[in-house]
Structures are given as structure tokens and as C-alpha cells.
């Protein structure tokens, strides 16, 4: 197991990506500390993990609340000897579908402000613990950077988060802390992507729909959310010990690295 004896904190653990990462981390041996705004959603994931034989605790934390984040990290640090992994699956609350020329400034700016605040606050709190112990991995997820119409401030928010991770990498690298972004074009089995394409929550994704959604990628499909979680496991593990300031391409070829 790649994450055996590792302690991992996941913010946004009640969402589709956070839950998938939680399941994957637990399957590979990590002890989980799950947090999110909706305690019921986080508890559901924690119960699923423990029912499968893993170890997980749930907490209600609003990542916009700086003091709440600091307290949560302190609580986790008081229970374990080290925090090895942070994964940020916090939603950006982006507003899409409106042309930029018609979009109010507040709607455009909201995901940029929300993402930078929540990602910075959580990463900083955990990084302080990791610097003291001299090791750790800080992960987040963004979308691949293909220019797309109608996505409002979402692309800008992703770019800001990626830039933040590079800055954290530069400052934390000498202390043994790695920072990695997992890039995804969106997974067809997540509610957010289904909503974009007009599918109902829980509506099955048949082969024709999957092919249509991923027709522009080199692999002719989009990555399922479990595949994104598997990429996160690898990047969080010691097998990726030389990788930092990296944008991990898990896009099925929607984006091509140059």
C-alpha cells in the first residue's frame, strides 16, 4: 500500500472528488481526517471508509473561516505525530454559462476570491505543521487550462491556485514539503460535469454520452473520478518523492504538456 502509516487531511471531503480521494487514500493505507462545510456529507464518506476497514474521522469546517481551519489542523496535529498529506477538494463556487461581456463583476470575481482564500488558508495551516516535522505533501485539483467560453472566472481561479502552489513549492521545498496540482478536465461521473451537460444527478453515463463528452481528448474519453483519485494517491506517495511544483496531467489527453 502506497500510503501505509500516512495521515491525510482532506478538505471538501463531502464532494464527489473529495470522497473519491478519501476512498483511494484509505484503500492505500492512509488514516483520514475529513472536513467540509456539510457535516452530514463528510460523515457519510467517513462511514463508508470505516465500513470498508479504513480509519477516518469527520469534522465540520468552513474553509473560509481562518480560525476554524487553524483549530481543525491543531486538533488533528494533537491526535497524530505528523500530518503527511493535505488534499484540497474545495469547490470554487464558480458561476458559468454567462458571456464575460454580460457577467457582473461580482460573479466573475467570486470563484477567484473563494478559491484563493480557501486554498491559501488550508494549505498554510497544514504547511506550518509540515515544516516543523520536515516533510509532507500538499495537493490540490484544478481544471486543465484550455481557453473555453462561458466559464466565467473559473479558469482564472484555477490559474491563481496553480500559481499559488508554485509559490508554496518554492518556499516549502527546503523544508522537505512537496506541492503538486492534479489537473483534470472534469469527470463524467461527477454531478458538476453532469450539470454542465444537462444531465440529471445520478443519470447513468452510457458509452455514447461518455464518448461525446471526451471526443476532443487524445484517448477519446474523460477520466473517471476514481482515476483522478488514483493519480492523487501516486503523487501523495513516496514514489513521487522528487516531484514538486508540478501540474500532474490526468486529462486523458485533453491537455498536452509541452
What would you give as the CATH superfamily of the largest domain? NAD(P)-binding Rossmann-like Domain
Total domain units: 2
How many strand units?
7
Strand order of the largest sheet: 3-2-1-4-5-6-7
Give the biggest sheet: 7 strands, parallel
Helix content: 40-55%
- Bin the strand percentage: 15-25%
CATH-derived topology of the largest domain: Rossmann fold
Through-space gap between termini:
32 Å
Report the average pLDDT across residues: 93
Radius of gyration: 18 Å
Summary tags:
single chain; 7-stranded parallel beta sheet
Detail the topology: elements first, then pairings.
Elements: E1 7-11, H1 16-27, E2 31-36, H2 39-51, E3 55-60, H3 66-79, E4 85-88, H4 105-133, E5 136-143, H5 154-172, E6 177-184, H6 191-196, H7 207-213, H8 225-236, E7 246-249
Parallel strand pairs: 1-2, 1-4, 2-3, 4-5, 5-6, 6-7
Helix pairs in contact: 1-2, 1-8, 3-4, 4-5
Write up this protein:
The protein has 258 residues and is of the alpha/beta class. The protein folds into two domains: 7-187 and 224-249, Rossmann fold (3-Layer(aba) Sandwich), CATH 3.40.50; 190-222, no CATH class. The chain has eight helices and seven strands, in the order βαβαβαβαβαβαααβ. It has helices at 16-27, 39-51, 66-79, 105-133, 154-172, 191-196, 207-213, 225-236, and strands at 7-11, 31-36, 55-60, 85-88, 136-143, 177-184, 246-249. A seven-stranded parallel beta sheet has the order 3-2-1-4-5-6-7, with helices on both faces. α1 packs parallel to α2 (39-51). The longest helix has 29 residues, at 105-133. The radius of gyration is 18 Å and the shape is globular. 46% of the residues are buried. The mean pLDDT is 93.
